[in-house]
Amino acid sequence: MNPKEKAEELLGVLIPFAEQLLVEHGEFFPFAGRMAKDGQFNHVAGYAGEEQPPSDEIRRLIEAGLREQASRGECDLAIVITNVSLTDQETGDTEDAIHAAIEHRAGYFADVFFPYSVSGGSLEYGDAKAQPRTPTIFEEQV
Questions:
Q1: For residue 88, which of 141, 126, 34 has the smallest C-alpha distance?
Q2: Which tens digits make up the pLDDT trace of 53-79?
Q3: Which residue range forms the structural domain that includes residue 110?
Q4: How buried is residue 133: exposed, middle or buried, by Cβ count under 10 Å (0-12/13-18/19+)?
Q5: What value, to the nearest 5°, has the Cα angle with vertex 132 and ends 79 and 96?
Q6: Domain count for the chain
Q7: What is the dihedral of CA 28, 115, 16, 25, to 10 degrees?
C-alpha cells in the first residue's frame, strides 16, 4: 500500500469520529491518529491541563508528541484533525471545515479540507480541497 492509500485508510477512521463529534457537540478539539510501520493504528489526543484550552495549544501538543514518536521511528504516518473556518479570498465568505494535516515518513505531505454544514442533526459536505503541506512532524524528511 502506498503512502496516500495508507492515509486514506486512516482518514476512514478519523473523519467519522470528527463527524460524530460535530453532530453531537457542534465542535471538537484537535485529535490525531498515527500508524506504525506494522500498520497498527492508534488515536492520539493532547491535554493542556485545563478544561477549555485553545485549540492551537492542543494541536501543538499533539504535533510535538507525534514529532517525538516519529524521531524514534515509532510511526510512519500521522494525521492531525482540526475544526477550522475557511475564508474565500475573493468574496470573504467563510465556511466550516474538517482539516486533515497528513504526513507520511515517505514524503507524502498534504492538507485536506472537508467543508461541511450541520443541518437537522446530520453533516453535509461541500467539495474537498487539497494542497501540499510543509511538514511539522516529519520535518527531517524535507
A1: 126
A2: 778 888 999 999 999 999 998 999 999
A3: 3-141
A4: middle
A5: 65
A6: 1
A7: 30
Residue with cell string 492520539: 44
CA angle 63, 79, 19 (to 5 degrees): 115
pLDDT digits (tens, 9 = 90+) for 74-106: 999 999 999 999 998 888 889 999 999 999 999
Closest CA to 20 of 105, 81, 68, 109: 81
- C-alpha cell recorded at residue 55: 485549540
Confidence of residue 108 (pLDDT cuts 50, 70, 90): very high
Tell me the whole-structure pTM to 2 decimals.
0.90
For residue 142, pLDDT over 60 is answered with no
